[in-house]
Amino acid sequence: MINKSTVKTPVHEQEPNIRNGNFKEVVLGYTSHEAMEEAGRCLQCRHRPCVSGCPVGVPIPEFVHEVAEGHFEAAYKIITRENSLPAICGRVCPQESQCEGKCVRGLKGEPVAIGRLERFVADWHMKNTEEAIVQTANEEMPKIAVVGSGPAGLTCASELVKKGYRVTIFEALHKTGGVLSYGIPEFRLPKRLVADEIENVKKLGVRINTNVLIGRSITVDELIEEEYQAVFIGSGAGLPKFLNIPGENLNGVYSANEFLTRVNLMKAYEKSAKTPVKIGKNVAVVGGGNVAMDAARTAKRLGAENVYIVYRRSEEELPARVEEVHHAKEEGIIFRLLNNPVGITGENGFVRGMSCIRMELGEPDASGRRRPVVIPGSEFELDVQTVIMAIGQNPNPLIRQTTQGLKTQSWGGIIVEESTMATSKENVYAGGDVVTGAATVILAMGAGKKAAAAIHEKLTNQ
């Protein structure tokens, strides 16, 4: 029976004044009853618009129907036919602009909470099912190399090993997971879930070699010489951008990439941490995307009294997820919108303030958003001791500099054929942030899945 409610079933969350003092997960998820109630809101549309909004093509109406019936394991099996990381996607995907953005329920109320349901199903499976994962790698099949163990690499590797290929992932860091491990904070994505998902990939037969920096330890060309029949590059975008304003070299200025890596990967929030992060009383985070929200909310949990999001456009143009902005506001993050930094001031080598100028919105620019224009004479000083730059990242240049015949964009992204993710170099494919620049987990997964299908088709034909 269809639940006619026009609003989503509420989800449990930690109270803001409590979660600001810990790194535990903010959203606590649905109970079985709540999940079934929410799944009952699905109209089971014949034309299934929600599926067209999913980059990995999860058959959403089918799995939601099983949840409504209380068949949670059946729902899990439906999801994982297309998505190998459901516990992760249910937490960090921007559903509001993808599957839920196309939900018919959203025309006269709120869309079905597809992301919350996917998360519930994955969590239920982990708690209630001891899955016997059978290794699928076949020693008679060709070898495939995957560069990077983030969402693009893990997805590509999973898809290929399920078809029998011998897949080896080469990861530059000592810990696997890419942005899932070092970029997204614990309070949004618990690292035990990431570890569990990666362990499942390994049980399928994927080998993972850590501390291997492609371009230094071994090159892409050398991988091909070692008889890897195809190489997928999913090395992400870890090279931070800066504004090139005075004072960016002062102590207390971080890139969001460094800041979040030290907190998430090196546990800088623990008192015994060997690489602690020094946070001042007042912190400015420059940028308006999900990474900026992650950095700001992390700084708050590290003890900062006032944390400012400094963004040169208005709230309507904020690229961050609506949920992340909502949570940030609940936690007391202060939004300084239509403000732009022009310099960082210091004393004895340390940050003591940030000079900003006020902006107003003019005509739309190439991105379709209204272009921010400086208001003359509106400069002011923001009293801060820490500045975190979260204005985007580009791919590390190492792979493109050491791989002959690999064509790239002027900003460093690898150029690919969109339908296959094939690069200009024979038998080399790429996907995720190394192609698009910093984007979403699910888009990276979609690219990894597309590349795996193309690799399989080519090797099968050969």
What does this 3D model show about the protein?
By secondary structure, this protein is an alpha/beta fold. It is built from 17 helices and 18 strands. The protein has helices at 16-19, 32-39, 49-52, 60-68, 72-80, 86-92, 114-128, 151-162, 179-182, 191-203, 220-225, 256-264, 290-301, 322-330, 398-402, 433-436, 441-461, and strands spanning 12-13, 27-29, 143-147, 166-170, 207-209, 228-233, 239-240, 253-255, 282-286, 306-311, 334-337, 339-347, 350-364, 370-374, 380-382, 386-389, 393-394, 428-430. The strands form 5 sheets. The chain has a 5-stranded parallel sheet with strand order 5-4-3-6-18. Strand 9, helix 13 and strand 10 (306-311) form a beta-alpha-beta unit. The longest helix has 21 residues, at 441-461.
What's the arrangement of secondary structure elements?
Elements: E1 12-13, H1 16-19, E2 27-29, H2 32-39, H3 49-52, H4 60-68, H5 72-80, H6 86-92, H7 114-128, E3 143-147, H8 151-162, E4 166-170, H9 179-182, H10 191-203, E5 207-209, H11 220-225, E6 228-233, E7 239-240, E8 253-255, H12 256-264, E9 282-286, H13 290-301, E10 306-311, H14 322-330, E11 334-337, E12 339-347, E13 350-364, E14 370-374, E15 380-382, E16 386-389, E17 393-394, H15 398-402, E18 428-430, H16 433-436, H17 441-461
Parallel strand pairs: 3-4, 3-6, 4-5, 6-18, 8-16, 9-10, 9-16, 10-11
Antiparallel strand pairs: 1-2, 7-17, 12-13, 13-14, 13-15
Helix pairs in contact: 2-4, 2-7, 4-5, 5-7, 6-7, 8-17, 12-13
